[in-house]
Design goal:
The protein is built from 18 helices and 13 strands. By secondary structure, it is of the alpha/beta class.
Length: about 425
């Protein structure tokens, strides 16, 4: 007996909801083993405008097994449609094969004339939102429990604008040219999320797990990262590791060797699932590959598919996915000032990345100043002035440089900013 067919019959008898048939477009051709039972329910409903009671049904089909169905209706219907498509396909291809043996033209014509019968049937989930409280309940939960819906960004001013990394339906990207500080910013964010008690995962395609973890250590302790990387004597590293070993923090880092030198989307999904992550950081989106369909695909298509799948994983696991993307110099015909701007038009290889991501922050670094340009913010404003941070990339100490217009009403801050204005204007 087809389990999907039996499940659907039981679901109909349990719920007495005939809309399941009409809403999903189920037809008698979708049944084979339980076709007689399905036809009986259809005939009964046509005559009495109701689905029969179980007692009436069992009296007609005493050998049919009644059981409780736990699976979602949509999953049952999807399985029903797939089985139905398989049967139609087998029938058509078997007939075509016999015709091909006699006359290839007749076989081809038969196949072409029946090709529309092989169109898959899809279930589309939809809700009448005018009679559903889901949107209100989601908003209310975000108001009442912001900490359970967002993961804080350590750069306070950036966090105030972006409202943190949202748990689910979030693909946030940092965009920058080489040697600009993308990995350092990512490490600062990962360290902060771990400190807040979240289960953090980092995929490090370029650096080894130890190299990336040393940046996390620097973010927390401000120990010189170059000293850690070069093996120079430093004070405090052992004490930090002893403290972490007895803590409740969880930071999972995998480098490219952990993925057998090929990081595919399915491996990323398994990384999230096996470590039960609350947030995923990827230090290089370009290294992630689809599991199939690479042949003939352009890099633009590949990166677009990767980002679409990563956003899907964010929805699936209800976690933010945060990554870094390589930037390029903008087009010709622009001034140097314009061409140096890092925003959504600077995305290397794929405009689809910009379309898919939910947040995008461009990074620029000059003379110890890190500039952040918010070029996309799906759920908020993006037309804001760049944020400036004075940062030491060796110790990862940073401080916000207030915007002169924003602090003009603060007399003390205004005086300090005015004194430094000329220096900052020279930098940018």
């Amino acid at each position: 007996m087809s389990i999907a067919e039996a499940q659907l019959i039981n679901r109909l008898l349990d719920t007495k909801d005939f809309d399941i048939i009409s809403d999903f477009g189920i037809q008698d051709e979708d049944f084979s083993v339980c076709k007689e039972q399905y036809d009986f329910i259809i005939g009964f409903h046509k005559k009495y405008k109701s689905i029969p009671d179980k007692e009436t049904f069992v009296a007609r089909f005493p050998d049919f097994e009644l059981f409780k169905v736990e699976e979602p209706t949509r999953a049952i219907v999807d399985e029903l449609f797939e089985n139905s498509l398989f049967r139609r396909g087998v029938k058509i291809f078997n007939t075509a094969s016999k015709l091909f043996e006699v006359n290839a033209v007749d076989g081809a014509n038969y196949l072409i004339s029946h090709i529309n019968e092989l169109q898959p049937k899809y279930t589309i989930n939809s809700i009448d939102m005018m009679h559903d409280m889901g949107a209100y309940n989601e908003w209310k939960d975000k108001v009442d429990n912001p900490e359970s819906n967002y993961i804080e960004i350590p750069f306070k001013e950036l966090n105030d604008i972006l409202h943190g990394f949202e748990k689910g339906s979030e693909l946030a990207l940092f965009l920058a040219k080489s040697s600009t500080g993308k990995s350092q910013v990512l490490s600062i964010c990962a360290e902060h999320a771990s400190k807040l008690g979240h289960r953090v995962g980092v995929i490090s395609p370029e650096m080894s797990r130890n190299q990336l973890f040393m940046r996390v250590v620097t973010s927390r302790t401000h120990i010189s990262n170059s000293a850690l990387q070069n093996g120079n004597p430093v004070a405090g590293f052992k004490e930090f590791m002893d403290k972490m070993n007895s803590s409740n923090e969880h930071l999972f880092i995998s480098d490219i060797t952990d993925f057998d030198n090929l990081i595919t989307l399915s491996k990323v999904r398994n990384f999230i699932k096996s470590n039960e992550l609350d947030i995923l950081f990827i230090d290089g989106i370009k290294y992630i590959r689809p599991d199939s369909k690479l042949k003939g695909m352009t890099e633009t298509q590949i990166q677009g598919e990767v980002c679409t799948e990563l956003l899907g994983m964010s929805n699936e696991f209800k976690i933010p996915v945060v990554g870094v993307v390589q930037a390029r110099r903008r087009g010709n015909g622009q001034s140097k000032e314009e061409s140096d701007i890092i925003d959504s038009e600077s995305v290397f290889e794929s405009y689809m990345i910009t379309q898919v991501c939910t947040k995008m922050v461009g990074l620029q670094k000059r003379d110890g100043i890190l500039q952040m340009n918010i070029s996309k913010n799906r759920n908020g404003v993006s037309d804001v002035k760049p944020l400036l941070y004075q940062i030491d990339f060796d110790t990862l100490r940073y401080s916000y440089i207030p915007n002169l217009e924003d602090i003009k009403n603060d007399k003390e801050a205004s005086e300090i900013a005015e004194e430094a204005k000329d220096d900052f204007m020279e930098v940018f």
